[in-house]
Amino acid sequence: MILIVVLIAVTSGLFLLNLNYKYWKKRGVPGPKPTFFVGNLADNFLVKKSLSDLYAEIYQKFQDSRLVGIFKANTPVLIIRDPELIKDITVKSFQHFHDNDLFLDKNIDPLLGRNPFFLKGEEWRSTRALLTPGFTSGKMKWVYPSLEEVSRDLVTYIDKHQETTSFKAKELCMRFTLNSVGACAFGLDAKCFEEDNPEFKQIGDRFLVPEGFQAVKAFLIRMIPVLRKMVSFRITPKDVEEKLTNIVRQTLRYREDNNIVRNDFMHILYQMTKTNSDFKEVDATAHAAGFFVEGYETSSVVMHFLLYELAANRRVQLKLRQEIDKAFDENDNTLPYEELQKLVYLDAAFNEALRLHPPVGSLRKVCTKAYTYTPKEDEMIKSFIIEEGMIVILSLYGLHRDPKYFTDPDCFKPERFLDAKKDSFKYVFMPFGEGQRACLGQRFGSLQVKIGVAYIIRNFEISVNGNTQLPIKYDPVYILTLPKEPVWLDFKKIR
Ligand code: HEM
To answer: In which residues is heme bound (predicted)?
Structure first.
């Protein structure tokens, strides 16, 4: 009897699973054939390819479609290919797609759970409004002297070590961004150029890497989304949470006891704890931690890809050095904030590195209010409803390498950004996202990467070391776009 019940349950389960696989067919939306149980993401489940690589592959296969229907396990998901539709989702119809497909309970992960990236609805809106004043261009000018100091320390650090060894680019850039975030967010010297493994680096090495059991939970939640509400999942390791909380607590106390005012993000948070009774110490800690994790990691990823591309493309490196040298030479061997803003070729090279290697390879939005998809006249699809709760994917990696928008899409050619008319890459080049949910730290991230690279190019000739495995393949597991094997660079002092 039990056997019969189990058989009936399994057969009905299989039947229902297969039934769901007709979801897109019924609506006439094109898409790749799903594999039973895993849907279209088998290569990610088997740790062969990153999700961003997979979405981009699917994006590329369906050249003539505005959207592609796929299955994550047996859940229907939409990949949006059309820039006009992307504009609608991120800007015009934002009220239908205002949340990210990410879930962290702030009672379980109090630091990242309070981060705007993970927050939803009204809570996201009010937190974003609270933090936005910390990222104005005025505030960037405020922290710029700290960034200059850290950049000079970077040059001294490379200088000291380059005789004996070449550098793992990501690690070098991470030391730089950790020091700059330490200075600009916490008002502290993170000592990443002095010690081999200082506390900030230990925290940085572990922050975004869910360990053991948490990684298994993350995988299960991805496969079976209903588990989100049943399984307690955290990204921030417990000991990292304790260390960061202590750093913030001590800094706030020290400032209070000694009446210290510094030009940094912590001062803004400190003021909020004094002026807003709803803003508690745990909020200050969470937002300082948010600045920490978003500030060092994405920027160090971008910076190391930019250095790699400059090392691999000598012509671009030389041209960039001419621009940078001129600015330093005309300003007493310094690079003032206003001068950095004028470096158009540096800006183009930065954008081109972001185009080729966007750290966030895909954006996953959730439909928060049913949305009617209206096809164009030449489409073979009827109008249909994108239901509340459906996940829509914007494949940044797919868009950024689409030959329809970028000629020779796999080549590093900063000139394309110089020649382009304003806004011509809108909604096809969007490394920071678009619309109300776009990256809050874009100004700070761009500033620290550009100043760090400017100081390096001013002082060193860089080349790719033979230890680098080419062509670069992306890590299938890490949540950001990162090479599976490290990029090694050689530095030759020229000044
Ligand atoms: C160059 C480096 C960076 C890149 C490429 C980058 C990219 C992104 C992307 C793609 C998003 C998602 C946008 C969306 O959902 O539409 C995002 C969100 C966010 N980023 Fe960045 N980011 C960078 C640096 C930073 C820095 C330095 C900070 C802060 C110090 C920061 C803070 C945030 C926050 C708070 C969000 C969530 C915004 C929201 O949901 O309202 N980012 N970033």
So the answer is: 439
